[in-house]
Amino acid sequence: MPENPSLSLEQLTQLVGAVLPPASASGSSSAQMTLTGCASLEDAGPSDLSFFSHPRYAAALRSTQAGAVLIPEEFQVHIDSPNTVLLPVPNPSAAFSLALQHLRPEPEPDPRGVHPSAVVDPTAQFDSNLVSIGPLSVVGPRTRIGAGTVIRASVVVGADAQIGEDCLLHHHVTVGDRCILGNRVILQSGCVIGADGFGYEFAGGRHKKIEQVGIVQIDDDVEIGANSTIDRARFGRTWIQAGVKIDNLVMIAHNAVLGKHCVIVAQTGIAGSSRLGDHCVTAAQTGVAGHLRIAAGTTLGARAAVIHNIDKPGQYLGFPARPQSQTMRSMSLVDKLPELWKRLRALEKQANS
Fold first, then answer.
1. In sequence order, what are the beta bridge partners of 287?
2. For residues 272, 275, 276 and 278, what is the CA-based torsion angle, rounded to 10 degrees?
3. Known catalytic residue: 54?
4. Core-most of 32, 37, 110, 290, by most CB within 10 Å?
5. What is the structure's pLDDT at 3?
């Protein structure tokens, strides 16, 4: 049975590049502290590590009982617990993530090879000593799988698909025929890659299905959240470029293109043939209509509805999506409408008297 993970305070400071405060560096009991877990400021106890990176949590920081807290450099604060050690670092969240890798329980390794209950076409190409195919998974004809890739339970990979090296396909993922995954792609549970695009022609009083014969291409270092869907192209490809991070419950339609390192947050919907430039961000429940172009470096706020091209990068909000400053001014005027209406009615009465 593996030992419980832990970090001494000295090990932590070396790991994240922090310096112990003078009182702790002198060899006090705090300097000998052993951390065995990570927790929020509110929930942390004396053996837990936490972090602080936003002013809204200042009250929680002052009252925390954590053994150690990673804080921004040059940040000054008084805390109630004399036993909590504050460790200034350039990026508390990133340092916390690094420490978490050493404090979390060791994950159960995925066994190499093909589980006896998996159904793998004999023409599929992979090295069974270098990949893992889990229980009840299905791998179709002529599919190629790179070294180091893990396919967990109940995954379906269609015919002629290509999966790169060191990918991780969680439970119940579907990768459709001929779709392409680069290296180090992570698909969380329930992802569907390569379902038919939503295309119909109305003829003869009914909706007739348009054949969807393209593919989905996902480039290196992309992660796609649980129950998100990327539809195959009507022709050509739906293309998710390198480094894109997609949250849970996102819908990307046929022939859409996401530029490099975009971040797409939960419940975003991007309609067919729209293109986002590199480094775009869509907040929760953003909608992008079809056949639009979004400039690289654009940020779309929560529930933004994009119905026109965005040619100039910046922050956009509202329905329809407009530059954030313009939308905020409009929102402030809406709040003033009741008072303006009263004043207008009063002026009307004066004019009519």
1. 269, 305
2. 140
3. no
4. 37
5. 60
Taking only the tens place, the pLDDT of each residue in 279-294 is 999 999 999 999 999 9
Exposure of 54 by Cβ count < 10 A (0-12 exposed, 13-18 middle, 19+ buried)?
exposed
As a whole number, mean pLDDT of residues 259-287 equals 98
H or E stretch covering 71: strand 68-72
Question: Which two structure tokens, joined as six digits, stand for 260?
Answer: 């490099």
Compute how many other C-beta atoms are within 10 angstroms of the C-beta atom of residue 342: 10
Catalytic member of 171, 172, 254, 291: 254
Question: Do residues 251 and 269 make contact, with C-beta atoms less than 8 angstroms apart?
Answer: yes
Residue 82 burial (C-beta neighbours within 10 Å; 0-12, 13-18, 19+): exposed
Structure tokens at 100: 């978490």
> In this structure, what token pair is assigned to residue 350?
């004066």
Enter the tokens of residue 30: 């705090």
Residue 75 has what pLDDT?
82
From 300, 301, 305, 274, select the one nearest 287 (Cα to Cα): 305
